[in-house]
Design brief:
globular, alpha/beta, 6-stranded parallel beta sheet
């Protein structure tokens, strides 16, 4: 590993910001699904297991859609780390029934599945082609969202992550045709999220912010300050949401943090390639673990691995802002303490500390590093294939 930070710039970079997603935030906003009636006559509802039927969200959505005169087709069974097989099934339904739009009800997995279904419905080949080469996406049927989990930020961005168990691949692509047209964010819909999912989702939000915060572009002060503000809010409210699941303020703040962490706002003018996410995606691809769990294990291991005289000031700035570490500490001492406080916080959320705790050994580390390396080029601190293998080993 080199200590030289990569891809830096002396000034904030040029950018264009375009987020066409209309957000309806707050109690009772599911009524806005009636607007889908002006966008077409049929909708494919994409969701996971039975939770939306148990908590009443399914019935609420169906009533609004029925009153709007929409024909509703259903694609249930989306798993964490959505699989290409179910996407193919959804694409086939869209083609067979001439479906006009896709509605995802759930968290990031349902939304990601819906996005690829929407693009696949306007593509003549296998939808996995689009994950391998997103430039093949030239159109998509409209995507709408009812969010039920604060985590991935997929409700307001142009990305999707889908796994292919046949090839042990979990790929992440971005394309502006994938941006949802509208998203309903009702914090009360997250009241029934289990503690472990709330914890993993909170870690995912923090990881998105970390990947944006650790940039080498000088002069992007406002982006950095926004990152630190979101991290402080997540640290404040994640434990509250776990201990008091129906605390509206906690759920509302986490939900909006999720969207702001990944809608592009934090990276405008300060782009950097992410590294912890691609490294974790390999874990999810091979072992089908919860994304936030893998991130909780890898994040502080990565921080420790890249800690140097070059990176200590940035880590110290984070520690002083989020963890109230004394200004009297040296940058290196503050950086080390910031890493320790981050790990302690993940422990407080009940996140596992090591890959070994999940029964993972080093069998696939070489192959995983081969796949992750290409996605990490240009990250905050350059990582070689060997560096990535060592990060996996340090996480055992």
């Amino acid at each position: 590993m080199t200590d030289v930070l990569s891809g830096g710039s002396g000034v904030m970079n040029n950018f264009t910001f375009d987020v066409p997603t209309v957000i309806h935030f707050g109690r009772g906003q599911i009524s806005h699904l009636a607007e889908l009636g002006s966008a077409g006559r049929s909708v494919l509802m994409v969701y996971g297991g039975g939770s939306i039927k148990k908590n009443g969200i399914y019935d609420s959505a169906m009533k609004v859609l029925d009153d709007a005169g929409l024909a509703v087709y259903e694609l249930p069974g989306v798993e964490p780390n959505p699989k290409i097989g179910l996407v193919r099934e959804g694409v086939s339904m869209c083609r067979a029934y001439g479906i006009d739009m896709v509605l995802a009800i759930g968290g990031g997995s349902s939304i990601d599945c819906a996005k690829l279904v929407a693009a696949g419905a306007r593509y003549d080949g296998d939808p996995w082609d689009l994950m391998v080469d997103s430039s093949l996406i030239h159109a998509a049927i409209p995507v709408y969202v009812v969010l039920t989990l604060a985590a991935t930020g997929s409700e307001m961005d142009n990305s999707t992550v889908v796994s292919n168990p046949e090839t042990n691949q979990k790929l992440d692509i971005s394309n502006n045709f994938l941006k949802p047209r509208m998203a309903v964010l009702d914090p009360e819909y997250t009241y029934t999220v289990p503690k472990e999912q709330t914890a993993a989702g909170s870690v995912d939000i923090m990881s998105h912010v970390f990947e944006s915060y650790f940039t080498n572009t000088a002069g992007a002060d406002i982006q950095g300050e926004m990152c630190l503000a979101i991290l402080k809010v997540v640290v404040k409210y994640a434990p509250t949401a776990m201990e008091d699941p129906e605390n509206y303020d906690a759920r509302a703040n986490l939900m909006w943090c999720s969207s702001l962490a990944l809608n592009g706002l934090l990276t405008l003018g300060a782009k950097v390639k992410w590294c912890v996410h691609p490294i974790e995606h390999e874990l999810s691809a091979y072992y089908d673990i919860t994304h936030g769990v893998g991130l909780a294990i890898l994040t502080t291991v990565w921080m420790e691995y890249i800690l140097s005289d070059d990176t200590a000031p940035k880590l110290a700035e984070y520690g002083k802002a989020v963890w109230n570490i004394s200004d009297g500490c040296s940058d290196m001492d503050a950086a080390r303490l910031a890493i320790r406080r981050t790990r302690d916080f993940f422990d407080r959320l009940g996140m596992p500390k090591s890959l070994g705790a999940l029964g993972i050994d080093d069998t696939h580390f070489e192959a995983m590093a081969d796949s992750a390396y290409g996605f990490c080029k240009g990250c905050y601190v350059p990582l070689s294939r060997e560096d990535i293998v060592q990060i996996y080993r340090n996480a055992l």
